[in-house]
Every structure is written in structure tokens, then in C-alpha cells.
Specification:
Blueprint: H1 10-25, E1 31-40, E2 52-53, E3 55-68, E4 73-78, E5 81-86, H2 99-111, E6 121-128, H3 138-154, H4 160-177, H5 185-192, E7 197-202, E8 207-212, E9 220-226, H6 236-252, H7 268-292, H8 300-312, H9 319-330, E10 335-339, E11 346-352, H10 356-369, E12 376-380, E13 388-389, H11 391-396
Parallel strand pairs: 4-6
Antiparallel strand pairs: 1-3, 1-13, 2-7, 3-6, 4-5, 7-8, 9-11, 9-12, 10-11
The chain binds adenosine-5'-diphosphate (ADP) and magnesium ion.
Adenosine-5'-diphosphate (ADP) binds next to strand 6 and helix 3.
Length: 403
């Protein structure tokens, strides 16, 4: 039997978070906010090359219950542990681990003037249905839920321009405090997605545009395969790819967004890296044009071509991802590819609605027969919406009991 990771409703996550908040802190939170994880349909490893990507928000999300404080202390609680520290002492290296993603948001928002320097601190409890470290952006979901919470609590703007500023602060949190060198795609989709749409993210200027993608209406679904292979973006490979992209752009005298011929790069490895980025941006454009004319099944081969490019030119795949993609295709998927940073994590397959069980069973069988870790699965029948305040808690009573 395949194992499925079901989404949990905002209100169920919120009520777990509020219960824990009460028992940890003996008070009511000021509110609860939720932010989604994501899969990237296509446009992988191009967000730090000023490229185009097309992520989709998941129905799986992370919630934070947040209370305000006035003594300069930040207290964080999650399934991974507890951390308490002084807001003034947050710095690269303090805290480390999971709390860095939350403390980093406070630090970055203060740096960016989104929170005033007299910000009095807060209490935060995290609950989530996003698989952690599976390439589905649990990190951005965590950052973005807190970023929106702080903005709402302090009256900072949360219209689209406000959310763009929050997304930038979350990228800084992840890069400068959590020390994970990711681009901006994950935070953009978590804060700025539109339900029923993929989000075109243009990393040249941070602009986004919703792209209608009615999966169920097209009779389609996305099967997400969490390979459960270890995935560690914080280690050197991701950073090395970024350096290669910068080196290629410097040699060619233009960003890879502007280039369509990489043959001037003498070094064969650098040339393959650049060829991935340039060809991937081209595939995003082709997908957009197919979607625009309602030919959604025909994007399948472009997804598969993206995987081949990531596997062979960019060299960020792994046996578990390759096995999942090959097995999904053999099971009749229109297309399949790794999604996210790679070196483990998840793959997606574009399939007929209703085929999820069958394709998953074949992917599981392939992993078993090769002695690989057994994957688990998520299905996506609709593109979810962006970070939001969870109303259920507010409806239960006023935000009482905090300083
Ligand atoms: P991904 O974003 O693909 O899930 P990352 O390695 O970028 O993987 O981020 C995962 C890290 O984010 C975790 O190791 C943890 O530090 C932090 N994190 C994410 N979700 C949670 C959560 N619900 N509770 C605590 N920490 C979390
Ligand atoms: Mg992440």
C-alpha cells in the first residue's frame, strides 16, 4: 500500500497550534496564520539566474500561532523543539537549526524596516502538514506564515506589494540567518500565489503573474512523490551551482536570461550548467504558451525534458528521483520531473485525475525492486492559495491575554 500525506485544514492545524500555545505559554495567541508549501511545475534552478519559474502552492501548509511580547524575547516552539532568545541577539549563527527560519524573519524584517527597531518580541508555536526537507518548501512556508503574522500584527501592508516586500525579507532570513542559499521562488509563491493558478515568477525583477491552471477541470492531477532520500540544500552543492551560473554569466557578459547560445563557454562542465539554465527558461516559455492555448497534457514532455536536463546537464538529480520519474512515465504519466533543489526531495508527475493510486503503486514497486527508500505521495487536484490569516481562531474569541 502506498503511503499518502494528506493536507490538514487550516482550522485543524490552528486548533492544534492554539492548544499548544495555551499549554506552553499560558495565554491566548493574538492570531494564527498559515502559509503553503509548493511544488515547482517547471523552471528549476533558474531563480538565481534571473530566470522564469512556475511554482504551484500546495494544499499542505504550515501555521504559526503568534502572541506579542514587550520584553525583547522571542520564544519558538515546534515539533522539532523549543528555542528562546533575545531579538537583539539574533545574528548569523544564532540561532542555528529550525528556529533560525523564524528568528531570521524577525531579524530581516527589522533590517528592512518592516518591523520597528523597538519590536518587543513574541511567542510562536508551529504546526505543519508540509513534509519537512522533502523539497516541498517547508522552510518558506514557515518563514512566510510568520512574516505575514508580524505584518498583520504591526499593521504593515499585506497587499501584493506588501507581500513582495515580505517575501524579500523571508529570502534574507533564509540566506543570512538560516544560511541556506536559496533563490526567491519559494517565498514568492507562498505569499503571492492565487488559488486555481500556477504563479509565473520572474526572478529578474521579482514580478509575478498568476497563470490559470484548473487541474481538475482539465481532468488532470499532479502526483507528488516524496522520495524520502536525504536532501540537504544547506550543504555545498547548491552553492556550487550558483557559483557556476555566476561564472558563466560573467564569461558571457550577460545574465543567462539574456543568452541563448552557450557555446562560447570553453569549460565543458560550465557549458552544461549554463545549457540547463538557458534551455530550462525556454521550456518555461513553451509551457506557458501551451497552457495559454489549453493544451495542458502537452506540457508533459517538457516536464520530462526538464528532468533530463537537471539530471545530465545540471547534475542535481539522484537515483531515487530518476527511479520515480522513470517509473511514473512507464505507468502512463504525461510527463515527470524532479521538483525543488534536487539531491533527493520530491518529483512530480502529470497524470490523469483518478490515476494517482495506480501510478503511485508502480512508483513504489520500482523503488522497492531497486532497494531504494520507499517513497510517499501527495496528490494535487487544484492549485492552492497564498499565505493567509486563519479566521477560525479569531472567531473563537478576542486576542486577549498578551502584553
Ligand atoms: P524544504 O524547504 O524543502 O522542506 P529545507 O531544507 O529548505 O527543506 O528546509 C527544511 C528545514 O526548515 C527543516 O530542517 C527545519 O529546520 C525547518 N522547518 C521547516 N518546517 C518546519 C516545521 N514545521 N517546524 C520546525 N522547523 C521546520
Ligand atoms: Mg526550503
Amino acid at each position: 500500500m502506498s503511503e499518502w500525506v494528506e493536507p490538514v485544514t487550516d482550522s485543524a492545524l490552528a486548533s492544534a497550534a492554539v492548544d499548544r500555545f495555551r499549554s506552553e505559554f499560558g495565554a491566548e495567541p493574538a492570531g494564527v496564520w498559515a502559509a503553503p508549501g509548493r511544488v515547482n511545475l517547471i523552471g528549476e534552478h533558474v531563480d538565481y539566474a534571473q530566470g522564469l519559474s512556475l511554482p504551484i502552492a500546495l494544499p499542505h501548509s504550515t501555521v504559526v500561532a503568534v502572541g506579542r511580547r514587550s520584553d525583547g524575547i522571542l520564544r519558538c516552539r515546534s515539533g522539532l523543539g523549543a528555542w528562546t532568545g533575545r531579538v537583539d541577539e539574533i545574528t548569523p549563527g544564532n540561532p542555528t537549526g529550525w528556529a533560525a527560519y523564524l528568528a531570521g524573519v524577525v531579524w530581516a524584517q527589522r533590517r528592512e524596516g518592516l518591523l520597528d527597531s523597538g519590536f518587543g518580541g513574541g511567542d510562536v508555536v508551529v504546526e505543519s502538514s508540509v513534509p519537512i526537507g522533502a523539497g516541498l518548501s517547508s522552510s518558506a512556508a514557515l518563514e512566510c506564515a510568520l512574516a505575514l503574522a508580524l505584518a498583520d500584527l504591526t499593521g504593515a501592508p499585506t497587499d501584493d506589494a506588501g507581500r513582495a516586500a515580505l517575501a524579500r525579507s523571508c529570502v534574507r532570513a533564509e540566506n543570512e540567518i538560516a544560511l541556506a542559499p536559496t533563490g526567491g521562488m519559494d517565498q514568492a509563491v507562498s505569499l503571492r500565489a492565487e488559488a486555481g493558478h500556477a504563479l509565473l515568477v520572474d526572478s529578474r525583477d521579482g514580478a509575478v503573474a498568476p497563470v490559470r491552471f484548473d487541474l481538475a477541470g482539465e481532468g488532470l492531477a499532479l502526483l507528488v512523490i516524496d522520495t524520502r532520500a536525504p536532501h540537504q540544500l544547506v550543504d555545498g552543492q547548491y552553492a556550487q551551482r550558483r557559483v557556476s551560473v555566476e561564472e558563466a554569466a560573467a564569461t558571457l557578459g550577460a545574465s543567462l536570461r539574456e543568452v541563448d547560445d552557450v557555446s562560447a563557454l570553453a569549460d565543458p562542465v560550465l557549458r552544461r550548467r549554463a545549457r540547463h539554465v538557458v534551455s530550462e527558461i525556454g521550456r518555461v516559455r513553451e509551457v506557458l504558451s501551451l497552457m495559454d492555448s489549453g493544451r495542458h497534457r502537452e506540457i508533459g514532455p517538457l516536464l520530462t525534458a526538464s528532468h533530463v536536463s537537471l539530471r545530465d546537464d545540471y547534475e542535481v538529480s539522484c537515483p531515487e528521483l530518476d527511479c520515480a520519474v522513470d517509473a511514473a512515465l512507464a505507468a502512463g504519466a504525461y510527463g515527470a520531473r524532479m521538483t525543488g533543489g534536487g539531491f533527493g526531495g520530491s518529483a512530480i508527475a502529470l497524470i490523469d485525475a483518478g490515476a494517482a493510486e495506480q501510478v503511485a503503486a508502480e512508483v513504489l514497486g520500482a523503488a522497492r525492486s531497486r532497494g531504494l527508500t520507499e517513497p510517499r505521495f501527495l496528490t494535487l487536484n487544484a492549485c492552492a492559495g497564498p499565505a493567509r490569516r486563519v479566521p477560525s481562531h479569531a472567531e473563537r474569541g478576542p486576542a486577549a491575554g498578551f502584553a
